[in-house]
């Protein structure tokens, strides 16, 4: 399988949730270290976000990494360097994103990491951390989200975008609190 075929396989991958894996934080830390070693002055901070960052939460076993930079101009200047560092992306998809740049790593057609490059301290930075922190501190809220994720994964098994969109209202309500 060549790189383009492996990327397409990762994009077409069905939605499959895994039970929480206590190895996920270590996988994040390894990627955080790798990114900070490669971009020590460009990355202000690197945070673990998404469901793999929430103890006990079922998740697609993909480590979501949020890297904070000074500006979107800085994010754009890193674009090719990030691609050279083992990530892939859709240029077309990124052209419609105003508040972040998105990349993924994959192995044998399976996503392993998502990298979201955003303005450190900006609106998206705060929203993503607020959502993660709310679920980490409120067990009942986390359980409601886990139940929703399971139901949506069953309903949208073959449509990753629909699965993500369907979680939006819950995410927005948590951030609004």
Automatic annotation (TrEMBL):
Protein name: GrpB family protein
PANTHER family, A to Z: GRPB DOMAIN PROTEIN (AFU_ORTHOLOGUE AFUA_1G01530), GRPB FAMILY PROTEIN
Top-level taxon in the UniProt lineage: Bacteria
Coiled-coil annotated residue ranges, if any: none
Gene3D superfamilies: Beta Polymerase, domain 2
Pfam (any one): GrpB
């Amino acid at each position: 399988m060549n790189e383009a075929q492996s990327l397409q396989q990762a994009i077409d991958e069905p939605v499959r949730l895994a039970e929480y894996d206590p190895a996920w934080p270590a996988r994040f830390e390894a990627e955080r270290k790798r990114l900070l070693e490669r971009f020590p002055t460009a990355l202000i901070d690197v945070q673990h976000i998404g469901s793999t960052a929430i103890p006990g939460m079922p998740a697609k076993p993909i480590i979501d990494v949020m890297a904070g930079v000074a500006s979107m101009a800085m994010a754009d200047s890193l674009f090719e360097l990030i691609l050279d560092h083992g990530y892939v992306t859709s240029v077309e998809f990124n052209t419609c994103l105003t508040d972040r740049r998105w990349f993924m790593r994959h192995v044998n057609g399976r996503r392993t990491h998502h990298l979201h490059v955003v303005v450190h301290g900006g609106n998206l930075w705060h929203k993503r951390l607020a959502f993660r922190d709310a679920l980490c501190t409120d067990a009942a809220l986390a359980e409601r989200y886990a139940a929703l994720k399971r139901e949506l994964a069953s309903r949208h098994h073959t449509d990753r975008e629909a699965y993500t969109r369907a979680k939006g209202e819950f995410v927005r309500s948590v951030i609004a609190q």
